[in-house]
Structures are given as C-alpha cells and as structure tokens.
Give the backbone structure.
Amino acid sequence: MHESSDTPGGPDGSAKGPLIRGASIAVLVAAVILPLVGCDTGPNSWFGAKADVACPRPQMPAGSQPQFNAQQIEIRTLRRRGFTGDFFAQLELARRYQGERAADKNLEDDVEAAVWYALALANSEGYTPIAANSRRSPQGENKVSRFDDCRAVERRMAYRSLDRVLSRMTSEEQEKVRNRVIYVLSTQGAEGYRTLARMHDGFFGPYGEPTDNRQATEARGRPGKPGAPAALSLFPRNDIDAYLYNYLAVQTGDVGAYVMLKDFERSSAKRAADGAYVEQKARRWTPPYEFYPPEAPESGVPHSDESDQYNDGQQAALQRLRELPFVHIAEALTYLRVTPRPVAREDALYPGDIQSFQAMIGRPQTGVFQPIEKVRAIQYAAVNGSPKAQLVLAVMYSEGVGVPRDYARAFYWYAEADKQGSAEAKYAMSTFFSLGVSGVADQDKAGAVVYQIDAALSGFKPSAGRLQQVLAQVSRPRPTPRDRDYLP
C-alpha cells in the first residue's frame, strides 16, 4: 500500500496534494528539458528509445521576416560556431552537407560533410563525461546522464556516416578532407594542435578519444563485424606527426601543451630520440591552406573561412593594416578580375565591386570593405599565382601587418615569389639565408651569395636596411638543450 500518495486529497479532503506534487514535478521536468527543446532536434526525437535518441541541435537565428538568403545565413552561423569548436554545430554542418534532407540537397558536398564529421569526432565536447562520475547506483556502477548518453549516440552515428561518406571518395578527395581538418584545428591555437597530436598518437582512439571510449572501440570493429575502416584510416597514426603537433602547441606558449609534450617524450625512448628531427620540421611547418578554400556546391553558398572571428593575434594584426599602402590591395583585386584596373584610394572602389569580391570569398555582401576582406584579397591573389601579391604577403607575415607575424609563412611566400622570378623576393631569400633566421632557414652563406647575385642580375637595387631590420630581430642564438627544458 502506498501512503499519502494514495489518499484522494490533501489534509482537507481536496485533491490539492496530488495537484501540487504534479505541478512541482512538471516544473522540474520543464527546467531540465526546456533549455534543450525548442531547437531542431535533428534526425531523432529527444524522447524515444535510449539507443535511438540524439541531442537537440543549435537554435538558428530567426528574424521577423523570412530572408531570401536564410540558408546562407544559417550555414555561416554554423560555420562560425564550428570553427570555434561547437560540437553540435559541427554535427549539424556535416548533416546539412550530406544533403539527405530535401531542403539541403543544394548543399550536398561529400568533402565538407566528412570534414565536419571528423571535426565533431575529434571534439572533446562530444566524449568528455559531464555527469558520469557524479553519482553511483547501489550496485556501484557509474550513472550516465541523459545528456552524456545522447552525445554517445551522436558520435556512434557520426562514425557510421563518416565511414559511408569516405568509402565513396577518391584518395584525392580524402586528402582534401585531411587538409581542411588540419587547417581548422590549426586556427584554434594550442587546443587545436593538441587535438591533432592525439589524432596521430596510437596511444589514443582514432580521433583522439580515450582508448576505452565506447564509440571509438565500436568503430574499430569486432570479430564478424567490419567496423569503419575508411574512418579509421583517414589520419595515419605515427609518432613523428604526433610529436610535431605537440611541439607546435608548445610554440603558442601554452603551459598545458608543454606538460603534454614532456609526457609524450617520456612515454618511450624512441619518441625522445626523434626530438631534433621534429624540431627542425616544426620550424618550417605551415598550414595546408592559406585560408579555407572558398569552393561552393551548386547552392552557391561558399565555404566561408570563419577563423578570423575569435583570434586575438589576428585582431591585433588587422589594426596595423593601415600601414599597408592600399595600392597593393587594389592590384590584388585587379589580378582577381574584380576591378578592371587598380585604383589609388579605397573610396574610389565601387560598392558593386566590393560585393563581387565578398561573394567570391563567402562574406556578407555589404559593399563595405572590412579589414579581414582586404587581407583576403592579398591572400587570394597570392594563392592564385600573383608574384606581387606573394611578395606583399611575405612582407606582411614578416612584419605582422594584417596577419600575425609568422616567419615560416613569410619564408614560404618569399620562396613562391622567387620561383616566379621576383628580384625583390630573391633578395629577401638571401637575407633569410645570410642571417640564418632561427625558426625558418639554416645559415647558408653560399646560398645567400647565389641569391644576391641573381637579384643583382635581375636589375633589383634593394633598400637593404628595411629588410635587414625586419629579419634581424629573429636572428638570435639557438637555445641549448638545457634551455629547452624551460618554457620559451
């Protein structure tokens, strides 16, 4: 027999007691569920069998009136969140690029779908327990929160979807997926590099999860079950790449990355022995892309690069963009055939030309030139082969104007301009070599002489002082092995 809960009413004989208790329970349930419901609930309902539920999706921005470009606004919002590590935005992007819903057919793009599934699987937000250890059952087993459970379901579905998408790709398309994932994670600083290190480290799961993660274990397959081989082989596991990304994380100045690197080195004698080679490789490492490729499916919604939105170093560099003469930006726009000829001043640009370029790179078509868009003009022209833009971009990286200072990238773009016969680039390359710039090029006096002679024969009479000032600041003694034991 139940006690008071079976009585037909409260102390006065009314039905007030059960009603109050029922209202209290309803309020409690609403407090838990309402923050999650009200979004697009994705492929499965929140309410359902435990093995079939999926987590709610992010709320999309809604205006008072439907907009003709609502889909593009939604994709840009999701990409902005995805670039900064939002697990659910990454999953939603992957689903949309799969084009399984009729409304998303025009977005269908296997490469992009695979990119965002891979990023979601590598995202610790998807597998870090929220409440797994907070309470135990009478039998001593860990209680898993419903939110932990739905994320596990999402990861299981993502592994299966990623495997299906990758299995129908060529090796070249899979290489695109790898490069785009590496690029996005490299824009996230130390945390992104640490994620890349785990993804290449055999001591972790296929996408950097703990080795006992259930979804990672299931993806490997069991006897009689093939698993997901295409998803497992996307990122090859090897100590050199794992070491490289740990090292790059340390170069950002992150203390946690330094501790992880030391743990990595101590994990085996072979890993410690690879240090000198990895350090040399890291000095020359640059991301696979200068910026995210603005390709677009038939929908006409370009793959926008949202990496500039939350990067403090990028914002500081953009403030110095006024130091760059506008003629260089104008020449880049002309090279890209956005304008018929370079203009002398920014206010001489037609708003329509600015909108054309904004559409080209997937930015909002406001007709007002934003600082990051000016940088993209130089970068886009450089990527498409303009030797002038390549040289300008190299100087921008050397000085930290418009882009964060990065001598490895500066050296790369000087080399690209040099390949096209730029006399200025030849002189800059000789300066790199003759100074023995730490972190970029080894000291090579003979190479320097060759470059300087080539530059002279090309008719270039350099103003040596400025370039030497720019590059001399990084010509410093190499640290001793003892010095490397401390944070830079």
